Amino acid sequence: MNRAYCKEKGIRLSGPKLGRPKKDNSADKRQEYIDSGIRNGVEGKFGEAKRAYGLDLMKVRLADSSKTIILMNLLVLNLEKRLWTLFAQIELKKKIGIKEFEELLAYLEVRLDEYKI
Questions:
Q1: Secondary structure element (H or E) that encloses residue 68, with its range
Q2: Is the dihedral of CA 5, 10, 72, 76 positive or negative?
């Protein structure tokens, strides 16, 4: 039932497939490698939230309170990332000048559009 549900919703399952392994599974191994990289990033963020923001110290009993604390931690993580990005942009503007910075941003936007990121 779970596999059928995931297939219906368009969710791709990662991990080893059931049954006899295929002879040529290079595409599967590549996808597993990509998935593990994504998973490592997500797990790292949860580890950071536990270590730096006290997510491991939750002492609430109600489900709504737990959700609130988790969402507040995620909000702080996202705000911190955006703040560091903003500071990096300000420092870059100081170093290379505003005109060169705007040219660099335009170039990067074009490159990102090519990759549809």
A1: helix 63-96
A2: positive
